[in-house]
TrEMBL record:
Region described as Disordered: 344-373
Alphabetized Pfam families for the sequence: Band_7
Taxonomic source organism: Nocardioides eburneus
Designated name of the protein: SPFH domain-containing protein
Acidic residues bias locations: 364-373
Similarity field: Belongs to the band 7/mec-2 family.
Keywords from the named record: Membrane, Transmembrane, Transmembrane helix
The Band domain, residue ranges: 21-179
UniProt keyword NAD, yes or no: no
Length: 373
């Protein structure tokens, strides 16, 4: 009984193991390579698959998705004998799981080595500066070579990217110094250009300012000269009108010899006024003025006996308003003083006429000028 139970247990274990080896579940985007006695038998697709237990065996499980592999930096010598480190990233996908299994032992390592050799070949034909600035060229060259080489391995290289290109530290320092010098040079050039533009603009501004100032001064001088000319013309016209007005008033009044002689005598004290006037000369006409002070027959040299009045009349404007009762005392006193002086002069003339020929006074003879005291 015990032996039968042991046999049943062993048989159950065998059945379970056989079922486990018979049923295979393949995940999505995977492919299982089945071998029978070490020889390729079939490729299992995603889902539930049945194989012969203990005869068929799933040797490899291939990932059919696109994969990303990054490789460590690889030292590369450029054309100008400088070593740089280039780090790359490759995107690839397995299209044929049978070829990827049996055509190449390790396709990832093969891709890495092929990338390294191709990268050295491409970078060896470029100098350092070209290598640093030709990433697209390196990517295109790597993609072309890897696509041709990995096609027979059942692999499709989708894309190749250069992550970084690192030159040696000494080269980096030299490049940084060169870049710093270039930046300083550009900054100095821009500063000089800015100063030049500023100087040019300042000079142009000063020029325009000087031109505008000169034009302003010229116009100011022209306007000032015109104003002076017009002022002189108006001043001359005013003086001319004033002279005409004075002469018109004189001729309209028709002064006689007595009035002119009296005014002549009134000017004599003003000649002697002043502290510095110690010596003054008496004109020779003073005697004649005294002789003909009250006589209508006496004449002074330079004063015409008859006046016909001005030939050119000047408009004097509206007549001055008459003075009222207020302020007439001064004018009455002046008239009385003039009348008294005229009467005194007439009495003196009559006295002189009585001593001479009656009826007509002889014109005064020319007398020599009095000697200077």
């Amino acid at each position: 009984m015990t032996a039968v139970l042991v046999v049943l247990v062993i048989l159950a274990i065998f059945v379970i193991t056989a079922l486990a080896k018979t049923v295979k579940i393949i995940p999505q985007a995977r492919a299982g390579v089945v071998e029978r006695f070490g020889k390729y038998k079939d490729t299992l697709t995603p889902g539930l698959n049945v194989i012969v237990p203990f005869v068929d065996k799933v040797r490899y499980m291939i990932d059919m998705r696109e994969q990303v592999v990054t490789f460590p930096p690889q030292p590369v010598i450029t054309e100008d004998n400088l070593t740089v480190s280039i780090d790359t990233v490759i995107y690839f996908q397995v299209n044929d799981p049978i070829a990827a299994t049996y055509e190449i032992a390790n396709y990832i390592q093969a891709v890495e080595q092929l990338t390294m050799t191709t990268l050295r070949n491409i970078a060896g034909g470029m100098d350092l500066e070209e290598t640093l600035t030709s990433r697209e060229r390196i990517n295109t060259g790597l993609s072309t070579v890897l696509d041709e080489a990995t096609g027979r391995w059942g692999i499709k290289v989708k894309r190749v990217e250069v992550k970084s290109i690192d030159p040696p530290m000494s080269i980096k320092d030299a490049m940084e110094k060169q870049m710093r010098a270039d930046r300083d040079k550009r900054a100095a050039i821009l500063t000089a250009e800015g100063q030049r533009q500023s100087s040019i603009l300042s000079a142009e501004g000063n020029k325009q300012s000087a031109i505008l100032n000169a034009e302003g001064q010229r116009e100011s001088q022209i306007l000032r000269a015109q104003a002076d000319r017009e002022a002189a013309i108006l001043r001359a016209q005013g003086e001319g009108q004033a002279i005409q007005t004075v002469f018109q008033a004189i001729h309209d009044g028709q002064p006689d010899q007595s009035l002119l002689a009296y005014q002549y005598l009134q000017m004599m004290p003003k000649i002697a006024e002043g502290d510095a006037n110690k010596v003054w000369i008496v004109p020779s006409e003073i005697g004649k003025a005294l002789e003909g002070l009250g006589s209508s027959l006496s004449n002074l040299q330079g004063i015409p006996q008859e006046t016909d009045g001005p030939r050119t009349r000047v408009d004097l404007g509206a007549p001055a308003p008459e003075l009222g009762t207020v302020g007439t005392a001064a004018s009455n006193a002046a008239e009385e003083a003039v009348k008294a002086a005229i009467a005194e002069a007439d009495s003196a003339a009559n006295t002189g006429a009585s001593n001479g020929a009656p009826g007509q006074a002889e014109p005064p003879a020319d007398e020599p000028a009095p000697e200077q005291p």
